[in-house]
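Review form for a predicted model. The reviewer records the input and the model, then writes brief findings.
Reviewer: anonymous (R2)
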Amino acid sequence: MKNRALKIVFAVLFFIFIFIAVNVTRQAFVFKAHKDYFKQPVEQQKVQEWMTFRLIERRYNIKSEAVLHKALAFPEFKSPISEYCLKEKLDCNKLIIDLENYRGLNSNKGP
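Model under review:
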């Protein structure tokens, strides 16, 4: 009985380790792929379809709730804009323009 329980515990720990390793690897590839883009000055960077709402809020101080007029669920917050547009049947270009316009309005405000 102890042997079986021990095998189950090790199997669960192994799957947790694999899950974490896959996520870390995925994040490393994403970071590596977009590292050159983020070397540009922030003023030259534009909102892109591959960016997530989380990234946009952190990098550009754009509140997605102000543009979308609704709060995002956690999976939507971490998904790229292109996936969100497909799911919600929105025009991605219009959403990007709205985000950029909000960014422009927000950057003109003083401290």
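Findings: The radius of gyration is 19 Å.
Further findings: The chain has two domains: 1-35, 42-111.
Recommendation: see findings above.
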